[in-house]
Queue: 2 jobs
Job 1
Amino acid sequence: MSPRVAIIGVFDGVHRGHQALIEQARSLAGAGEVVALTFDPHPLTVVNPDAAPLMLGGIDDRIEQLTTAGVDEVVVVNFTTAVSEQSPEEFAREFVHGRARANAVVVGDNFRFGYRALGDVHTLEELGGTYGFSVHDVDLHGDTQTYSSTRAREALLSGDLSTVTQVLGRPFSYRGVVVHGDHRGRTLGVPTANVTIAADRAAPGDGVYAGRVRRPGTHGPPMTAAISVGSNPQYAGTERRIEAHVLDEEDLDLYDAEIDVEFLTRLRGQQVFDSEAAFIEQMQADIRAARAIGEAPEAS
């Protein structure tokens, strides 16, 4: 029988710690398959909603990132109250043995599972003897700090993109559908593709960023962009959103299209200027800075 090696977790952001699990699983599987057991929604939305984190990506993002990182099959566990109340043995029987059909499991050294997180790596090893799978744990620490979704979220919200990129192993990208905004940008000579920030999603802290825009599933290079995150305080806006100005594409129509907005560098915080002319002058400076960063060879 070909090996089936399972990894288990939420895998929000599919950061470098998750990637280490996948590499280990891939090595163990050889010509076999790596299967990811992931949970949606995040378990905390069920067991402690007030503590539920903002997510680095949606479930479709996660599946794509896991597949890109080397996973052959993704099993999405609908995390319900019933699942949260399963004992470690019930979870191992239904999901590890039943759904994943695993004969080996790779988890982080801090892995917990089952009702009230009563199970740990040693529990899983004992259950592996019953259900026919071996257990391999991986140290998720990199340099001096742990690679974690929490660390990535905290850095993202503070605008610390260098740390975000270090943890994720790639720049952060927000995927969303382009909606109609105030249509003010075009009159100012800076048309934007606007994406609403969902209530359950993490996004960079308010400010102006250099980045790129991609159309998922399309070929060709990404488009350099100057990106604003916030509620547009210059015009007393109230809705927090991402506004991406794609350079040198004045007639680009992205309405209702899904796009990935990739964040490379924070340029500045949000400001309110004394005049619209001063605001436009600053936007042009932001565009020049975004061009220099987005078109630099190391940004490719």
Note: The radius of gyration is 22 Å.
Job 2
Amino acid sequence: MDEFLERRVSNATVWSRRIAVFSAVLFLTAGLGHRIGFLSTPDFFPVLGTVAAFAILALLFAVRALFLFWHYGGKGGGSLLFAILVALLVLTPFGITAYRGVTLPLLNDVSTDTDDPPELAAAAAQRTDGMNRIEPFTPERRKLQHDNYPTATGRRYEAPIAQVAEVVQEVLDDRRWPIIGSADFPPDATEITIEAQARSPLLGLPADVAIRLIDEGTSTYVDMRSASRYGPHDFGDNAARIAFFLADLDVEVAYLTVVTPVEPAEPPKPEEPQPPVAQPPPEEPSEPLDRSEDPPD
């Protein structure tokens, strides 16, 4: 009876697939739970570390499975490829974050006006222990921001401050950033600061923003500030948030400052011809008198 070895799937392949799928499910579940508020941000960070550790472990099992597959053959090549792709997909956000951490400056608070940044008064009152403190900008922080984010500047709009404030609140509503504090301001206010809470696109990490509007008479100047609530490094999130928000604000305010075309003036109406004035007939020249027949004196 001929003996033969049955080709089978290695245990390393099986565990690589299981761990990779588990890391992906944990990542999605934790991210959704953090988004809806079920998982707090301080508790979310350890879960992210666990997700990354499981994804790396899945890749290590995949390396072992590739070694066995290369030397001894076997089945399960499709499962092994699936495990590698899932693990790499899970690790992609961590890789991008690590790259930004190395290439971008160590900042967690960015403002378009570093000399006199908009105040985050309402946000400071809501921050608790474990969150970043809102601190004044130091000369080192100003230089670090100017060197790395030179385009983070304010905007001047040729529109009244009341109209610009309405547009700012509309953009905040579109982005679903809840306003912190009061959004009612007196109609004669010359300076308005609107505060709101924002979140990062992927992981939903919280940050506080402040938009300051200054009335300049015929125009309104807008400054913006964005400060992360957690972590010493924002990985470029605050500068990107300011850039995207102001770009949307540019588009919306443009509708207020479009120049209305001036209607052309009506052409002058032609003067109606006046009826000709009747001229008297010319007088016939009088003939000289013939005095040849007059009697002599």
Note: The first strand starts at residue 109 and ends at 111.
